[in-house]
TrEMBL record:
Belongs to the ketopantoate reductase family. Its EC number is 1.1.1.169. This is 2-dehydropantoate 2-reductase. GO terms for molecular function: 2-dehydropantoate 2-reductase activity; NADP binding.
Amino acid sequence: MSVYVLGAGGVGTLIASSLSNALKVNFVVRNTAKLNNLAKTNNTFAIKRLYDNNKTIKYTINGAFPADKLPDSKIDFLLICVKTFDTVKSLTPLLDKITSKTRILLVQNGMGVVDELYSKIWTNVDSRPTIYQGVISHGVWQSPENHDTYNYNHAGFGYLKICQVPRDLQNITAKDTIENDDVIRELVQSDLNVSTYSYEELLVYQIQKLLVNCCMNSTTSIVNCINYKLADLEETDALFTSIVSEGLNVLKTAYPVLKTSPLATELLSVEKEVKFVKHVGFTINSKNSTSMRQDVLNLRNTEIDYINGHIVKKAWESGMTAPVNDTISKLLKIKLAVNRRTAQEKA
Ligand SMILES: NC(=O)C1=CN([C@@H]2O[C@H](COP(=O)(O)OP(=O)(O)OC[C@H]3O[C@@H](n4cnc5c(N)ncnc54)[C@H](OP(=O)(O)O)[C@@H]3O)[C@@H](O)[C@H]2O)C=CC1
Ligand SMILES: CC(C)(CO)C(=O)C(=O)O
């Protein structure tokens, strides 16, 4: 079976590690320094568990290849963990190896990528591959000394929740086949706390996690701090409550299925969600530097349009406004622009 990881960064490498014993896992890589470093270690990398006395475990994959040099003519299973904004672009050179039999697991923060894939790449319902969506709350980052390697810090032990996305989003009750997927089964049996759900259930968990990122990622990036430094401040509570209450109001209108979902009724209240944001951000991932903060510090593009920006977009589509999330999005973009200008001035 051909298993590939597109986006072998923090999250991609962590998930690949849990598959590497049972399956021949391959990375799709664009960075020559990473390819060379991996070859030097015979395709072995290390994950350090910061939540478990820095226990470091080594894993070996089958190989790593540039997108135009994959040894297989077809991809059976593709794990996608590139940043949301890179998805369409990075998938394009692989499209001739993806068929309606390919299974693709997307593990990314934010929302809106499946809509983009269906509207830009697989417009014909029947030719679409099977898409699974993952929601992850594990925290992973790379220390600067490990730059251009696949060695990462697993900073917070969370969960990975997965569902099968309907081929046709207008027919969301179609029966899914996720339980029969051998790679998904491997993940469920791994030590990453993986479980599967229906599409409707996962939508609730995706929104629950989206709001974590709407609060944590943008605020830590704008303020420029490690997660725990925002904890126990009245102002943080007030800001997170505004982001969450506006977000829930918009998303419950944009996704009407939430109105009849018992799981949404149980989990998606403002009070419970703010508590959840603080639990994931400050307890589970207290020592993490959010993925968005890492992007802003390294002057890379950010996922803001798929996070706070997704709420702004959904509000606009529903004839509503989302001024809090819109302001946060703008501040984040200003922060990145200022960092880029400062770097240019120093150069
Ligand atoms: N890190 C975390 O704690 C968490 C992250 N997430 C989410 O998971 C997703 C991935 O985040 P994260 O792992 O942190 O991001 P990283 O930046 O660590 O990883 C993304 C990887 O994608 C690779 N990539 C991008 N374009 C291509 C391409 N065309 N071909 C091959 N590889 C490509 C990059 O390669 P290159 O090295 O060449 O740039 C990079 O290694 C994001 O949506 C993030 O929000 C969710 C929960 C927690
Ligand atoms: C869970 C959290 C907030 C961890 O920092 C995250 O999802 C991220 O950094 O992107």
